[in-house]
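Subject line: Sequence and fold of a protein, written as structure tokens
Area: Proteins and the way their chains fold up in space.
Start of record: The labelled sequence and token lines come straight after this line.
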Amino acid sequence: MSEAGTAATDLAPLAIICGGGSLPYAVADAIIGRGRKVALFPIRGWADPVAVERYPHHWVSLGRFGRFRRLAHAQGCHDVVLIGSLVRPSLRQIKLDWPTLRLLPRIVRAFRGGDDHLLSNIAAIFADAGLRLVGAHDVAPEILAPHGPMGVCRPSASDRADIDCGLAVLSALAPFDIGQAAVVVQGRVLAVEAAEGTDLMLARVAELRRRGHLPVATGAGVLVKAPKRDQDRRFDLPTIGPATVEHAARAGLAGIAVIAGATLVAELGAAAAAADRTDLFLIGVSERAPGPG
């Protein structure tokens, strides 16, 4: 795209397709703060119906790409951010409109793979419709995790070893496209994130502790989150927020480590405050090894 074309795109309203959680609205607020208009497209059944009322919005449903495309073009949108939690649906759960039905062969092929394969193919479908999928961090870099501690607590030497172990595990699992988080306690991998998501993975760890299956006291172990190697980082970056901290505390962990500059943080101030309140560390580390802190 030419410089003139890029400038025109940057002045156009940004379309934000909203899944669950608070991150879509943090992105919207950051964009508005930069002087750019937004048009929200909350997904029925996932987006917060109260939160979206603060913004210009049009409700959309999964499988109704024709309606979204028509509305986005009517709003003058060229760039689209896809952000927020959304459990991957089965094709049987999606009611397609006619424009989407015509894309069904491509959609079926997109579903035959992991999440990264699915999202990359969705990006191509958007591009063919004259819409460019961009990363939330590209338009609102302030939502990325900073490097170093985000609260007052610091990881111990044992915690740092667990962070290294967690990063190695996630790197080894990256080719299988199965998750972006792991829990490590004193060198032992207790859980790896799968389709259930981070919160339910942490609930499993909490249940193990409740049943007495963890041979260590509360306050040991680390939640490590990292993007999949070679994934398309326009979407599906790891995400944390205050709720993640609360779940980690209930699981009895010592802290949370995420990749600085490659993890989205919803409500950074509130997440750091939650970490301080629960005596957990919250730290951004480099992709290869924990950073100083």
